[in-house]
Amino acid sequence: MGAPAPARRALVGATALALALLVALPWVAGRYTVYLTIQVLVLAIFALGFNLLFGYAGLLSFGQAGFFAVGAYACAKILLAVPNLLLGLAGGVAAAGAVALVLGVLSVRHTRIYFSMLTLAFGMMIYSIAWKWRDVTGGDDGLVGIPRAPLALPGLGSLALPTVERYYYVVLAAAVLAVALAHRLVHAPLGLALQAIRDSESRAEFAGLPVRRYRLAAFVVAGLYAGLAGALLPPLESTVTPPIAHWSTSAEPVLATLLGGIHAFAGPLVGALLFYVIKDVIVRFTEHWLIWYGAIVIVLVLGFRGGVVGLLARALGRPPEAPRA
Amino acid sequence: MLETIAFQGLIGLALAMYLWLISAGLTIIFGVLRIVNFAHGSLFMLGAYLAFTLYGQVGLPFGVAILLSLLGVGALGLVMERGFLRHLYGVDEAYQLLLTFGFILVLDDAVKLIWGGVFRIPPMPAFLDGAWPVFGRPFPVYNAFVLGVGVLTAGALWLLFERTWWGRIVRATAADREMAGALGVRVPRVFTGVFAFGAMLAALGGALGTPVRVVAPGIGAEMIIQAFVITVLGGLGNLRGAFVASLIVGVLSAYGTLFFPVFELFFIFVIMAVVLLVRPQGLFAR
Description:
Chain A has 15 helices and four strands. By secondary structure, chain A is mainly alpha-helical. In chain B, α2 packs across α8.
Protein backbone atom coordinates (compact mmCIF):
# COMPACT_ATOMS: atom_id res chain seq x y z
CA MET A 1 0.00 0.00 0.00
CA GLY A 2 2.90 2.32 0.67
CA ALA A 3 3.22 4.64 -2.30
CA PRO A 4 6.58 6.27 -2.96
CA ALA A 5 6.90 9.78 -1.50
CA PRO A 6 6.53 11.80 -4.76
CA ALA A 7 3.45 9.84 -5.76
CA ARG A 8 2.00 10.40 -2.31
CA ARG A 9 2.64 14.11 -2.54
CA ALA A 10 0.98 14.19 -5.97
CA LEU A 11 -2.01 12.36 -4.52
CA VAL A 12 -2.39 14.83 -1.65
CA GLY A 13 -2.07 17.70 -4.11
CA ALA A 14 -4.69 16.23 -6.43
CA THR A 15 -7.08 15.70 -3.53
CA ALA A 16 -6.66 19.29 -2.33
CA LEU A 17 -7.17 20.60 -5.85
CA ALA A 18 -10.31 18.51 -6.35
CA LEU A 19 -11.71 19.74 -3.03
CA ALA A 20 -10.98 23.39 -3.87
CA LEU A 21 -12.68 22.98 -7.26
CA LEU A 22 -15.71 21.35 -5.65
CA VAL A 23 -16.06 24.13 -3.07
CA ALA A 24 -15.72 26.87 -5.72
CA LEU A 25 -18.04 25.15 -8.21
CA PRO A 26 -21.32 27.07 -7.56
CA TRP A 27 -19.51 30.37 -8.24
CA VAL A 28 -18.01 29.36 -11.54
CA ALA A 29 -20.58 26.96 -12.98
CA GLY A 30 -24.23 27.10 -13.88
CA ARG A 31 -27.12 25.45 -12.08
CA TYR A 32 -27.15 22.43 -14.38
CA THR A 33 -23.51 21.65 -13.61
CA VAL A 34 -24.17 21.98 -9.90
CA TYR A 35 -27.16 19.67 -10.20
CA LEU A 36 -25.09 17.17 -12.16
CA THR A 37 -22.30 17.35 -9.59
CA ILE A 38 -24.76 16.46 -6.84
CA GLN A 39 -25.63 13.35 -8.84
CA VAL A 40 -21.93 12.57 -9.19
CA LEU A 41 -21.36 12.94 -5.44
CA VAL A 42 -24.37 10.75 -4.63
CA LEU A 43 -23.16 8.04 -7.01
CA ALA A 44 -19.64 8.38 -5.58
CA ILE A 45 -20.93 7.65 -2.06
CA PHE A 46 -23.05 4.78 -3.37
CA ALA A 47 -20.16 3.27 -5.35
CA LEU A 48 -17.65 3.74 -2.54
CA GLY A 49 -19.75 1.53 -0.28
CA PHE A 50 -20.32 -0.97 -3.06
CA ASN A 51 -16.61 -1.24 -3.72
CA LEU A 52 -15.85 -1.92 -0.08
CA LEU A 53 -17.94 -5.02 -0.61
CA PHE A 54 -16.75 -5.90 -4.12
CA GLY A 55 -13.21 -4.61 -4.47
CA TYR A 56 -12.10 -5.15 -0.90
CA ALA A 57 -14.20 -8.11 0.26
CA GLY A 58 -14.66 -9.80 -3.13
CA LEU A 59 -18.44 -9.99 -2.80
CA LEU A 60 -20.42 -8.88 -5.87
CA SER A 61 -23.81 -7.62 -4.70
CA PHE A 62 -26.66 -7.08 -7.13
CA GLY A 63 -29.00 -5.82 -4.44
CA GLN A 64 -27.46 -2.50 -3.42
CA ALA A 65 -30.36 -0.59 -4.97
CA GLY A 66 -32.51 -2.05 -2.22
CA PHE A 67 -30.54 -0.26 0.50
CA PHE A 68 -30.37 2.86 -1.64
CA ALA A 69 -34.17 2.79 -1.82
CA VAL A 70 -34.58 2.14 1.92
CA GLY A 71 -32.47 5.24 2.57
CA ALA A 72 -34.45 7.31 0.08
CA TYR A 73 -37.90 6.18 1.23
CA ALA A 74 -37.07 6.49 4.94
CA CYS A 75 -35.67 9.99 4.45
CA ALA A 76 -38.71 10.98 2.39
CA LYS A 77 -41.16 9.64 4.98
CA ILE A 78 -39.38 11.52 7.78
CA LEU A 79 -39.21 14.79 5.83
CA LEU A 80 -42.90 14.55 4.98
CA ALA A 81 -43.65 14.25 8.71
CA VAL A 82 -40.94 16.39 10.30
CA PRO A 83 -39.23 19.03 8.17
CA ASN A 84 -35.72 18.54 9.51
CA LEU A 85 -33.06 17.62 6.96
CA LEU A 86 -30.53 16.21 9.39
CA LEU A 87 -33.18 13.98 10.92
CA GLY A 88 -34.21 12.79 7.46
CA LEU A 89 -30.65 11.94 6.41
CA ALA A 90 -29.82 10.25 9.70
CA GLY A 91 -33.07 8.31 9.58
CA GLY A 92 -32.40 7.16 6.02
CA VAL A 93 -28.89 6.00 6.90
CA ALA A 94 -30.06 4.25 10.08
CA ALA A 95 -32.93 2.48 8.31
CA ALA A 96 -30.66 1.25 5.50
CA GLY A 97 -28.09 0.13 8.07
CA ALA A 98 -30.67 -1.80 10.05
CA VAL A 99 -32.01 -3.55 6.96
CA ALA A 100 -28.45 -4.27 5.81
CA LEU A 101 -27.64 -5.81 9.18
CA VAL A 102 -30.59 -8.20 9.03
CA LEU A 103 -30.14 -9.14 5.38
CA GLY A 104 -26.35 -9.17 5.78
CA VAL A 105 -26.43 -11.83 8.49
CA LEU A 106 -28.20 -14.04 5.95
CA SER A 107 -26.29 -12.96 2.84
CA VAL A 108 -22.76 -13.54 4.12
CA ARG A 109 -23.54 -17.20 4.64
CA HIS A 110 -22.74 -17.44 0.94
CA THR A 111 -19.98 -16.14 -1.31
CA ARG A 112 -19.48 -15.90 -5.07
CA ILE A 113 -22.44 -16.55 -7.33
CA TYR A 114 -24.74 -17.64 -4.52
CA PHE A 115 -24.06 -14.39 -2.70
CA SER A 116 -24.85 -12.42 -5.86
CA MET A 117 -28.11 -14.32 -6.35
CA LEU A 118 -29.13 -13.90 -2.73
CA THR A 119 -28.53 -10.15 -2.75
CA LEU A 120 -30.45 -9.95 -6.02
CA ALA A 121 -33.41 -11.70 -4.38
CA PHE A 122 -33.29 -9.40 -1.34
CA GLY A 123 -33.02 -6.32 -3.50
CA MET A 124 -36.00 -7.38 -5.59
CA MET A 125 -37.97 -8.07 -2.39
CA ILE A 126 -37.45 -4.46 -1.38
CA TYR A 127 -38.39 -3.42 -4.91
CA SER A 128 -41.66 -5.32 -4.74
CA ILE A 129 -42.44 -3.78 -1.36
CA ALA A 130 -41.81 -0.29 -2.74
CA TRP A 131 -44.04 -1.09 -5.66
CA LYS A 132 -46.93 -2.85 -3.95
CA TRP A 133 -47.25 -1.50 -0.41
CA ARG A 134 -49.26 1.47 -1.58
CA ASP A 135 -50.29 2.77 1.86
CA VAL A 136 -46.72 3.41 2.93
CA THR A 137 -44.73 3.86 -0.27
CA GLY A 138 -47.36 5.36 -2.56
CA GLY A 139 -47.07 2.41 -4.97
CA ASP A 140 -46.03 3.22 -8.50
CA ASP A 141 -46.80 6.92 -7.93
CA GLY A 142 -44.14 6.99 -5.26
CA LEU A 143 -43.88 9.72 -2.65
CA VAL A 144 -44.25 13.27 -3.89
CA GLY A 145 -43.92 16.77 -2.54
CA ILE A 146 -40.96 16.01 -0.31
CA PRO A 147 -39.73 19.33 1.12
CA ARG A 148 -36.10 20.38 1.04
CA ALA A 149 -36.30 20.93 4.78
CA PRO A 150 -33.96 23.40 6.50
CA LEU A 151 -30.76 22.11 7.99
CA ALA A 152 -31.32 22.57 11.72
CA LEU A 153 -28.19 22.04 13.78
CA PRO A 154 -28.88 21.71 17.48
CA GLY A 155 -27.59 24.82 19.32
CA LEU A 156 -26.45 26.51 16.09
CA GLY A 157 -29.72 27.56 14.58
CA SER A 158 -31.27 26.60 11.29
CA LEU A 159 -30.17 27.13 7.69
CA ALA A 160 -32.78 27.27 4.95
CA LEU A 161 -31.88 25.57 1.65
CA PRO A 162 -34.02 27.28 -0.98
CA THR A 163 -31.56 26.84 -3.86
CA VAL A 164 -29.85 23.86 -5.43
CA GLU A 165 -26.52 25.60 -4.81
CA ARG A 166 -27.04 25.65 -1.06
CA TYR A 167 -28.18 22.06 -0.99
CA TYR A 168 -25.08 21.21 -3.00
CA TYR A 169 -22.92 22.11 -0.01
CA VAL A 170 -24.88 19.75 2.22
CA VAL A 171 -24.25 16.93 -0.26
CA LEU A 172 -20.60 17.91 -0.60
CA ALA A 173 -20.14 17.88 3.18
CA ALA A 174 -21.78 14.47 3.41
CA ALA A 175 -19.60 13.14 0.60
CA VAL A 176 -16.37 14.47 2.12
CA LEU A 177 -17.27 12.92 5.47
CA ALA A 178 -18.15 9.63 3.81
CA VAL A 179 -14.91 9.53 1.81
CA ALA A 180 -12.76 10.42 4.82
CA LEU A 181 -14.44 7.75 6.91
CA ALA A 182 -14.07 5.12 4.19
CA HIS A 183 -10.40 6.02 3.83
CA ARG A 184 -9.91 5.43 7.54
CA LEU A 185 -11.82 2.16 7.35
CA VAL A 186 -9.87 0.58 4.49
CA HIS A 187 -6.56 1.43 6.07
CA ALA A 188 -7.73 0.20 9.46
CA PRO A 189 -7.60 -3.49 10.33
CA LEU A 190 -11.06 -3.92 8.79
CA GLY A 191 -9.91 -3.06 5.27
CA LEU A 192 -6.75 -5.12 5.50
CA ALA A 193 -8.59 -8.10 6.93
CA LEU A 194 -11.18 -7.93 4.14
CA GLN A 195 -8.46 -8.01 1.50
CA ALA A 196 -6.78 -10.91 3.21
CA ILE A 197 -10.09 -12.81 3.23
CA ARG A 198 -10.73 -11.96 -0.41
CA ASP A 199 -7.33 -13.23 -1.50
CA SER A 200 -7.45 -16.44 0.48
CA GLU A 201 -10.32 -17.29 2.74
CA SER A 202 -8.76 -20.37 4.25
CA ARG A 203 -5.48 -18.61 4.99
CA ALA A 204 -7.35 -15.79 6.73
CA GLU A 205 -9.32 -18.33 8.72
CA PHE A 206 -6.12 -20.06 9.81
CA ALA A 207 -4.78 -16.70 10.92
CA GLY A 208 -7.74 -16.53 13.25
CA LEU A 209 -9.84 -13.91 11.46
CA PRO A 210 -13.59 -14.21 12.06
CA VAL A 211 -14.28 -14.30 8.32
CA ARG A 212 -18.04 -14.08 8.39
CA ARG A 213 -18.09 -11.24 10.89
CA TYR A 214 -15.72 -9.17 8.75
CA ARG A 215 -17.87 -9.80 5.71
CA LEU A 216 -20.93 -8.76 7.66
CA ALA A 217 -19.17 -5.54 8.71
CA ALA A 218 -18.37 -4.78 5.06
CA PHE A 219 -21.96 -5.55 4.10
CA VAL A 220 -23.39 -3.20 6.74
CA VAL A 221 -20.99 -0.39 5.84
CA ALA A 222 -21.93 -0.78 2.17
CA GLY A 223 -25.59 -0.65 3.21
CA LEU A 224 -25.02 2.51 5.26
CA TYR A 225 -23.31 4.18 2.32
CA ALA A 226 -26.07 3.14 -0.07
CA GLY A 227 -28.58 4.48 2.46
CA LEU A 228 -26.81 7.83 2.72
CA ALA A 229 -26.63 8.13 -1.06
CA GLY A 230 -30.34 7.30 -1.31
CA ALA A 231 -31.30 9.68 1.50
CA LEU A 232 -29.59 12.60 -0.24
CA LEU A 233 -31.84 12.31 -3.31
CA PRO A 234 -35.43 13.04 -2.13
CA PRO A 235 -34.67 16.60 -0.89
CA LEU A 236 -33.18 17.31 -4.33
CA GLU A 237 -35.82 15.70 -6.54
CA SER A 238 -38.80 16.06 -4.15
CA THR A 239 -40.05 12.63 -5.28
CA VAL A 240 -39.14 8.98 -4.74
CA THR A 241 -40.43 6.21 -7.03
CA PRO A 242 -39.97 2.40 -7.08
CA PRO A 243 -37.54 2.17 -10.03
CA ILE A 244 -34.71 3.33 -7.76
CA ALA A 245 -35.04 -0.04 -6.00
CA HIS A 246 -34.94 -2.12 -9.20
CA TRP A 247 -31.91 -4.29 -9.86
CA SER A 248 -30.98 -2.16 -12.84
CA THR A 249 -30.28 0.70 -10.39
CA SER A 250 -27.83 -1.61 -8.63
CA ALA A 251 -25.93 -1.53 -11.89
CA GLU A 252 -24.94 2.12 -11.55
CA PRO A 253 -22.38 1.71 -8.75
CA VAL A 254 -21.15 -1.42 -10.53
CA LEU A 255 -20.52 0.56 -13.71
CA ALA A 256 -18.95 3.48 -11.88
CA THR A 257 -16.63 1.19 -9.94
CA LEU A 258 -15.60 -0.74 -13.04
CA LEU A 259 -14.90 2.49 -14.90
CA GLY A 260 -12.79 3.96 -12.13
CA GLY A 261 -11.07 0.82 -10.96
CA ILE A 262 -11.92 -1.90 -8.51
CA HIS A 263 -8.72 -2.20 -6.56
CA ALA A 264 -8.01 1.45 -5.92
CA PHE A 265 -9.62 3.47 -3.16
CA ALA A 266 -10.26 6.39 -5.51
CA GLY A 267 -11.65 4.09 -8.23
CA PRO A 268 -15.37 4.53 -7.42
CA LEU A 269 -14.92 8.30 -6.97
CA VAL A 270 -13.21 8.80 -10.32
CA GLY A 271 -15.67 6.34 -11.82
CA ALA A 272 -18.71 8.24 -10.57
CA LEU A 273 -17.42 11.38 -12.26
CA LEU A 274 -16.63 9.53 -15.48
CA PHE A 275 -20.02 7.82 -15.42
CA TYR A 276 -21.87 11.13 -15.64
CA VAL A 277 -19.37 12.87 -17.90
CA ILE A 278 -19.47 10.05 -20.45
CA LYS A 279 -23.25 9.80 -20.18
CA ASP A 280 -23.59 13.53 -20.65
CA VAL A 281 -21.40 13.45 -23.74
CA ILE A 282 -23.09 10.42 -25.29
CA VAL A 283 -26.58 11.78 -24.65
CA ARG A 284 -25.71 14.79 -26.80
CA PHE A 285 -25.39 12.49 -29.80
CA THR A 286 -27.90 9.76 -29.14
CA GLU A 287 -30.57 8.81 -26.66
CA HIS A 288 -29.23 5.27 -26.76
CA TRP A 289 -26.46 5.79 -24.28
CA LEU A 290 -26.83 2.39 -22.65
CA ILE A 291 -25.59 0.56 -25.73
CA TRP A 292 -22.35 2.56 -25.44
CA TYR A 293 -22.14 1.83 -21.75
CA GLY A 294 -22.58 -1.84 -22.47
CA ALA A 295 -19.74 -1.67 -24.97
CA ILE A 296 -17.57 0.16 -22.43
CA VAL A 297 -18.30 -2.49 -19.80
CA ILE A 298 -17.37 -5.25 -22.24
CA VAL A 299 -14.10 -3.56 -23.20
CA LEU A 300 -13.22 -2.83 -19.56
CA VAL A 301 -13.94 -6.37 -18.42
CA LEU A 302 -12.00 -7.92 -21.28
CA GLY A 303 -9.01 -5.62 -21.36
CA PHE A 304 -8.81 -3.12 -18.52
CA ARG A 305 -9.94 -4.73 -15.32
CA GLY A 306 -8.05 -2.12 -13.31
CA GLY A 307 -10.20 0.70 -14.66
CA VAL A 308 -8.99 4.23 -15.27
CA VAL A 309 -7.22 4.52 -11.92
CA GLY A 310 -5.42 1.26 -12.65
CA LEU A 311 -4.23 2.65 -15.98
CA LEU A 312 -3.08 5.89 -14.34
CA ALA A 313 -1.25 4.05 -11.58
CA ARG A 314 0.56 1.96 -14.18
CA ALA A 315 1.46 5.09 -16.14
CA LEU A 316 2.82 6.72 -12.97
CA GLY A 317 5.00 3.72 -12.36
CA ARG A 318 3.33 2.28 -9.30
CA PRO A 319 3.44 -1.50 -9.21
CA PRO A 320 0.30 -2.92 -10.79
CA GLU A 321 -2.18 -4.51 -8.40
CA ALA A 322 -2.05 -8.25 -8.24
CA PRO A 323 -4.70 -9.73 -10.53
CA ARG A 324 -7.37 -11.80 -8.90
CA ALA A 325 -7.73 -15.31 -10.19
CA MET B 1 -64.99 -22.60 -7.81
CA LEU B 2 -63.20 -25.89 -8.24
CA GLU B 3 -63.38 -25.42 -11.98
CA THR B 4 -61.88 -21.95 -11.69
CA ILE B 5 -58.96 -23.39 -9.76
CA ALA B 6 -58.40 -26.19 -12.24
CA PHE B 7 -58.72 -23.90 -15.24
CA GLN B 8 -56.37 -21.32 -13.77
CA GLY B 9 -53.90 -24.13 -13.08
CA LEU B 10 -53.99 -25.05 -16.74
CA ILE B 11 -53.32 -21.43 -17.72
CA GLY B 12 -50.42 -21.49 -15.28
CA LEU B 13 -48.98 -24.60 -16.89
CA ALA B 14 -48.93 -22.89 -20.28
CA LEU B 15 -47.21 -19.89 -18.71
CA ALA B 16 -44.75 -22.28 -17.10
CA MET B 17 -43.58 -23.46 -20.53
CA TYR B 18 -42.11 -20.07 -21.44
CA LEU B 19 -40.35 -20.02 -18.09
CA TRP B 20 -39.14 -23.56 -18.64
CA LEU B 21 -37.62 -22.83 -22.03
CA ILE B 22 -35.65 -19.82 -20.83
CA SER B 23 -34.59 -21.53 -17.60
CA ALA B 24 -33.51 -24.70 -19.38
CA GLY B 25 -30.93 -22.78 -21.40
CA LEU B 26 -29.76 -20.84 -18.38
CA THR B 27 -29.28 -23.93 -16.24
CA ILE B 28 -27.59 -25.98 -18.98
CA ILE B 29 -25.09 -23.18 -19.58
CA PHE B 30 -24.40 -22.93 -15.86
CA GLY B 31 -24.09 -26.68 -15.50
CA VAL B 32 -21.41 -26.96 -18.17
CA LEU B 33 -19.64 -23.60 -18.33
CA ARG B 34 -20.24 -22.53 -14.69
CA ILE B 35 -21.36 -19.16 -15.96
CA VAL B 36 -24.55 -17.39 -14.94
CA ASN B 37 -25.63 -15.72 -18.13
CA PHE B 38 -27.25 -12.47 -17.06
CA ALA B 39 -27.99 -11.72 -20.71
CA HIS B 40 -30.15 -14.81 -21.10
CA GLY B 41 -33.33 -12.77 -20.76
CA SER B 42 -32.10 -10.53 -23.56
CA LEU B 43 -31.65 -13.58 -25.78
CA PHE B 44 -35.25 -14.55 -25.00
CA MET B 45 -36.29 -11.03 -25.96
CA LEU B 46 -34.27 -11.13 -29.16
CA GLY B 47 -35.92 -14.42 -30.11
CA ALA B 48 -39.30 -12.76 -29.61
CA TYR B 49 -38.38 -9.73 -31.73
CA LEU B 50 -36.89 -11.80 -34.54
CA ALA B 51 -39.92 -14.06 -34.69
CA PHE B 52 -42.19 -11.03 -34.60
CA THR B 53 -40.40 -9.46 -37.57
CA LEU B 54 -40.17 -12.64 -39.62
CA TYR B 55 -43.73 -13.77 -38.95
CA GLY B 56 -45.65 -10.57 -38.30
CA GLN B 57 -43.90 -8.19 -40.69
CA VAL B 58 -42.13 -10.26 -43.36
CA GLY B 59 -44.99 -12.73 -43.40
CA LEU B 60 -43.05 -15.99 -43.35
CA PRO B 61 -44.92 -19.11 -42.21
CA PHE B 62 -45.04 -19.34 -38.42
CA GLY B 63 -42.84 -22.42 -38.11
CA VAL B 64 -40.19 -21.05 -40.46
CA ALA B 65 -40.12 -17.74 -38.59
CA ILE B 66 -39.53 -19.54 -35.28
CA LEU B 67 -36.81 -21.73 -36.75
CA LEU B 68 -34.97 -18.78 -38.29
CA SER B 69 -35.07 -16.77 -35.07
CA LEU B 70 -33.62 -19.78 -33.23
CA LEU B 71 -30.77 -19.93 -35.70
CA GLY B 72 -30.18 -16.17 -35.49
CA VAL B 73 -29.99 -16.12 -31.71
CA GLY B 74 -27.93 -19.31 -31.72
CA ALA B 75 -25.40 -17.60 -33.99
CA LEU B 76 -25.30 -14.64 -31.62
CA GLY B 77 -24.69 -17.03 -28.72
CA LEU B 78 -21.81 -18.52 -30.67
CA VAL B 79 -20.25 -15.09 -31.13
CA MET B 80 -20.76 -14.20 -27.45
CA GLU B 81 -18.94 -17.31 -26.29
CA ARG B 82 -16.22 -17.46 -28.96
CA GLY B 83 -15.49 -13.76 -29.12
CA PHE B 84 -15.91 -12.67 -25.53
CA LEU B 85 -16.63 -15.06 -22.69
CA ARG B 86 -13.84 -17.38 -23.77
CA HIS B 87 -11.25 -14.82 -22.71
CA LEU B 88 -12.51 -14.74 -19.15
CA TYR B 89 -12.44 -18.39 -18.09
CA GLY B 90 -9.20 -17.84 -16.20
CA VAL B 91 -10.24 -14.87 -14.07
CA ASP B 92 -12.63 -14.29 -11.19
CA GLU B 93 -16.17 -15.36 -12.07
CA ALA B 94 -17.49 -11.94 -11.08
CA TYR B 95 -16.04 -10.65 -14.35
CA GLN B 96 -17.99 -13.20 -16.35
CA LEU B 97 -21.13 -11.97 -14.63
CA LEU B 98 -20.18 -8.39 -15.40
CA LEU B 99 -19.48 -9.22 -19.04
CA THR B 100 -22.89 -10.78 -19.56
CA PHE B 101 -24.28 -7.72 -17.82
CA GLY B 102 -22.58 -5.57 -20.45
CA PHE B 103 -24.35 -7.70 -23.08
CA ILE B 104 -27.71 -6.86 -21.50
CA LEU B 105 -27.08 -3.15 -21.92
CA VAL B 106 -25.98 -3.58 -25.51
CA LEU B 107 -28.73 -5.99 -26.56
CA ASP B 108 -31.60 -4.18 -24.81
CA ASP B 109 -30.64 -0.86 -26.29
CA ALA B 110 -29.93 -2.38 -29.71
CA VAL B 111 -33.46 -3.75 -29.71
CA LYS B 112 -34.83 -0.28 -28.98
CA LEU B 113 -32.63 1.14 -31.71
CA ILE B 114 -33.69 -1.41 -34.33
CA TRP B 115 -37.32 -2.03 -33.48
CA GLY B 116 -38.34 1.01 -31.47
CA GLY B 117 -41.24 0.80 -29.04
CA VAL B 118 -44.05 -1.65 -28.47
CA PHE B 119 -45.94 -3.39 -31.30
CA ARG B 120 -49.34 -4.83 -31.84
CA ILE B 121 -49.46 -8.58 -31.44
CA PRO B 122 -49.55 -10.22 -34.89
CA PRO B 123 -52.56 -12.42 -35.73
CA MET B 124 -52.64 -16.04 -34.62
CA PRO B 125 -51.62 -18.61 -37.25
CA ALA B 126 -54.91 -20.02 -38.53
CA PHE B 127 -54.26 -23.63 -37.57
CA LEU B 128 -53.66 -22.65 -33.92
CA ASP B 129 -56.55 -20.21 -33.63
CA GLY B 130 -59.66 -20.86 -31.60
CA ALA B 131 -60.45 -22.42 -28.26
CA TRP B 132 -61.50 -25.74 -26.76
CA PRO B 133 -64.05 -26.02 -24.00
CA VAL B 134 -62.22 -27.11 -20.86
CA PHE B 135 -63.94 -27.13 -17.43
CA GLY B 136 -66.75 -25.21 -19.06
CA ARG B 137 -64.50 -22.40 -20.26
CA PRO B 138 -62.77 -21.66 -23.56
CA PHE B 139 -59.15 -22.80 -23.35
CA PRO B 140 -57.11 -21.30 -26.22
CA VAL B 141 -55.75 -23.88 -28.63
CA TYR B 142 -52.53 -21.92 -28.67
CA ASN B 143 -51.98 -22.54 -24.95
CA ALA B 144 -52.29 -26.25 -25.62
CA PHE B 145 -49.75 -25.87 -28.43
CA VAL B 146 -47.30 -24.08 -26.10
CA LEU B 147 -47.76 -26.82 -23.52
CA GLY B 148 -47.06 -29.42 -26.19
CA VAL B 149 -43.90 -27.68 -27.39
CA GLY B 150 -42.62 -27.30 -23.83
CA VAL B 151 -43.19 -30.91 -22.88
CA LEU B 152 -41.75 -32.16 -26.18
CA THR B 153 -38.64 -30.02 -25.62
CA ALA B 154 -38.27 -31.47 -22.16
CA GLY B 155 -38.47 -34.99 -23.58
CA ALA B 156 -36.05 -34.18 -26.37
CA LEU B 157 -33.54 -32.68 -23.94
CA TRP B 158 -33.77 -35.73 -21.73
CA LEU B 159 -33.13 -38.01 -24.72
CA LEU B 160 -30.31 -35.78 -25.92
CA PHE B 161 -28.46 -35.71 -22.62
CA GLU B 162 -29.15 -39.23 -21.37
CA ARG B 163 -29.23 -41.30 -24.52
CA THR B 164 -26.89 -39.83 -27.13
CA TRP B 165 -23.16 -39.72 -27.66
CA TRP B 166 -23.28 -35.92 -27.65
CA GLY B 167 -25.16 -35.83 -24.39
CA ARG B 168 -22.59 -38.07 -22.77
CA ILE B 169 -19.76 -35.81 -23.88
CA VAL B 170 -21.54 -32.76 -22.51
CA ARG B 171 -22.28 -34.48 -19.21
CA ALA B 172 -18.68 -35.60 -18.92
CA THR B 173 -17.49 -32.04 -19.51
CA ALA B 174 -19.92 -30.72 -16.92
CA ALA B 175 -18.74 -33.26 -14.35
CA ASP B 176 -15.01 -32.71 -14.81
CA ARG B 177 -13.75 -30.57 -17.64
CA GLU B 178 -10.10 -31.41 -17.11
CA MET B 179 -10.67 -35.12 -17.15
CA ALA B 180 -12.91 -34.82 -20.18
CA GLY B 181 -10.19 -32.82 -21.92
CA ALA B 182 -7.59 -35.42 -21.01
CA LEU B 183 -9.79 -38.11 -22.54
CA GLY B 184 -9.88 -36.25 -25.84
CA VAL B 185 -13.04 -34.16 -25.55
CA ARG B 186 -12.56 -30.83 -27.24
CA VAL B 187 -13.77 -28.84 -24.26
CA PRO B 188 -13.72 -25.37 -25.88
CA ARG B 189 -15.91 -26.68 -28.67
CA VAL B 190 -18.33 -28.19 -26.19
CA PHE B 191 -18.50 -24.85 -24.39
CA THR B 192 -19.32 -22.99 -27.59
CA GLY B 193 -21.91 -25.54 -28.61
CA VAL B 194 -23.61 -25.58 -25.22
CA PHE B 195 -23.74 -21.80 -25.01
CA ALA B 196 -25.24 -21.47 -28.49
CA PHE B 197 -27.68 -24.28 -27.72
CA GLY B 198 -28.77 -22.62 -24.49
CA ALA B 199 -29.24 -19.34 -26.37
CA MET B 200 -31.50 -21.14 -28.86
CA LEU B 201 -33.66 -22.53 -26.08
CA ALA B 202 -34.16 -19.01 -24.72
CA ALA B 203 -34.99 -17.80 -28.23
CA LEU B 204 -37.54 -20.61 -28.62
CA GLY B 205 -39.27 -19.41 -25.46
CA GLY B 206 -39.32 -15.86 -26.76
CA ALA B 207 -40.39 -16.76 -30.28
CA LEU B 208 -43.17 -19.01 -29.04
CA GLY B 209 -44.90 -16.06 -27.41
CA THR B 210 -45.14 -14.04 -30.64
CA PRO B 211 -48.88 -14.39 -31.30
CA VAL B 212 -49.95 -14.02 -27.66
CA ARG B 213 -47.47 -11.93 -25.70
CA VAL B 214 -46.56 -8.30 -26.25
CA VAL B 215 -42.93 -7.76 -27.20
CA ALA B 216 -41.34 -4.80 -25.45
CA PRO B 217 -37.76 -3.95 -24.61
CA GLY B 218 -38.40 -4.63 -20.90
CA ILE B 219 -39.27 -8.31 -21.23
CA GLY B 220 -35.63 -9.39 -21.09
CA ALA B 221 -35.12 -7.94 -17.62
CA GLU B 222 -38.43 -9.35 -16.46
CA MET B 223 -37.77 -12.86 -17.78
CA ILE B 224 -34.21 -13.15 -16.49
CA ILE B 225 -35.36 -12.47 -12.95
CA GLN B 226 -38.00 -15.20 -13.16
CA ALA B 227 -35.51 -17.55 -14.77
CA PHE B 228 -33.11 -16.90 -11.88
CA VAL B 229 -35.82 -17.78 -9.39
CA ILE B 230 -36.53 -21.02 -11.23
CA THR B 231 -32.94 -22.12 -11.68
CA VAL B 232 -32.31 -21.43 -7.99
CA LEU B 233 -35.36 -23.44 -6.94
CA GLY B 234 -34.40 -26.28 -9.23
CA GLY B 235 -30.74 -26.08 -8.33
CA LEU B 236 -28.21 -24.32 -10.56
CA GLY B 237 -27.32 -26.72 -13.36
CA ASN B 238 -30.17 -29.13 -12.63
CA LEU B 239 -32.32 -29.55 -15.74
CA ARG B 240 -34.98 -31.75 -14.20
CA GLY B 241 -35.18 -29.37 -11.25
CA ALA B 242 -35.66 -26.46 -13.62
CA PHE B 243 -38.61 -28.21 -15.28
CA VAL B 244 -40.39 -28.92 -12.00
CA ALA B 245 -39.60 -25.45 -10.64
CA SER B 246 -41.00 -23.86 -13.83
CA LEU B 247 -44.27 -25.72 -13.31
CA ILE B 248 -44.40 -24.58 -9.69
CA VAL B 249 -43.63 -20.94 -10.43
CA GLY B 250 -45.92 -20.85 -13.47
CA VAL B 251 -48.89 -22.30 -11.59
CA LEU B 252 -48.17 -20.27 -8.46
CA SER B 253 -48.09 -17.00 -10.36
CA ALA B 254 -51.31 -17.93 -12.18
CA TYR B 255 -52.96 -18.47 -8.77
CA GLY B 256 -51.08 -15.52 -7.34
CA THR B 257 -52.58 -13.06 -9.81
CA LEU B 258 -55.97 -14.64 -9.08
CA PHE B 259 -55.94 -14.73 -5.28
CA PHE B 260 -53.35 -12.34 -3.89
CA PRO B 261 -52.12 -10.06 -6.66
CA VAL B 262 -50.49 -7.60 -4.26
CA PHE B 263 -47.88 -9.88 -2.79
CA GLU B 264 -47.22 -12.29 -5.64
CA LEU B 265 -43.92 -10.72 -6.63
CA PHE B 266 -42.73 -10.41 -3.04
CA PHE B 267 -43.40 -14.04 -2.20
CA ILE B 268 -41.57 -15.31 -5.25
CA PHE B 269 -38.40 -13.58 -4.06
CA VAL B 270 -38.94 -14.74 -0.49
CA ILE B 271 -39.08 -18.30 -1.79
CA MET B 272 -35.92 -17.73 -3.83
CA ALA B 273 -34.05 -16.34 -0.82
CA VAL B 274 -35.21 -19.12 1.50
CA VAL B 275 -34.15 -21.82 -0.95
CA LEU B 276 -30.75 -20.17 -1.41
CA LEU B 277 -30.27 -20.10 2.35
CA VAL B 278 -31.66 -23.49 3.28
CA ARG B 279 -31.05 -25.62 0.20
CA PRO B 280 -28.60 -23.83 -2.11
CA GLN B 281 -28.27 -27.02 -4.15
CA GLY B 282 -31.95 -26.63 -5.09
CA LEU B 283 -35.15 -28.33 -4.03
CA PHE B 284 -34.69 -31.31 -6.29
CA ALA B 285 -31.06 -32.24 -5.86
CA ARG B 286 -30.50 -35.94 -5.62
